[in-house]
From TrEMBL:
Residues 3-157 form the N-acetyltransferase domain. GO terms for molecular function: acyltransferase activity, transferring groups other than amino-acyl groups. It comes from Oxalobacter aliiformigenes. It comes from the Bacteria. This is GNAT family N-acetyltransferase. Gene3D superfamilies: 3.40.630.30. SUPFAM superfamilies: Acyl-CoA N-acyltransferases (Nat). InterPro entries: Acyl_CoA_acyltransferase, GNAT_dom.
Length: 157
């Protein structure tokens, strides 16, 4: 399957709003809150702010013809005393019909590149504390993220 991953810009806004709503619905469903409806208007209003932040990146995976498969968001964390620089993989979402086709891996690779470009040494993802996301957990394990403290998953870049 051919997949193109690019850093998002304002031309991706419409698709990103849809993907973000799908992501939130998916997480809510796994949390036992089926029927949750995200506020797409609020997402549409707030999302452009993130696209222009220098320490924040949104990557979109698409078919060569432009069909969106998924997205990820990543941002550089401010460095604390005696801590190495790192980035947070804030959101990672691949549409259900396109999972297990290496799209998530490609999005994580872009997040790693972003982390390295910010002089980061590791990429970290944190899963929810109050419910288990089995597919996400399996994905991070397969991608060789190591668990630290249960919810946090890290990988050196």
């Amino acid at each position: 399957m051919n997949v193109v991953v690019n850093k998002a810009d304002s031309s991706d806004l419409r698709d990103l709003v849809v993907l973000t709503c799908e992501f939130l619905e998916d997480v809510a469903s796994q949390a036992g809150m089926a029927g949750f409806v995200p506020d797409d208007q609020k997402i549409r209003e707030k999302l452009p702010e993130f696209l222009d932040m220098p320490d924040y990146a949104v990557f979109v995976a698409r078919s060569p013809k432009g069909h969106p498969f998924g997205f990820c968001t990543v941002f550089r964390m401010p460095v604390q005393i005696r801590e190495e620089p790192y980035a947070i993989l804030d959101r990672l979402y691949v549409r259900r019909d396109y999972r297990r086709r290496q799209i998530g891996r490609l999005l994580v690779e872009e997040a790693k590149r972003f982390t390295r470009s910010c002089k980061g040494k590791r990429l970290q993802a944190t899963l929810p504390a109050f419910f288990v996301m089995e597919e996400a957990l399996a994905f991070f394990r397969a991608e060789r993220f190591y668990e630290t403290g249960g919810r946090k998953h890290k990988i050196a870049v």
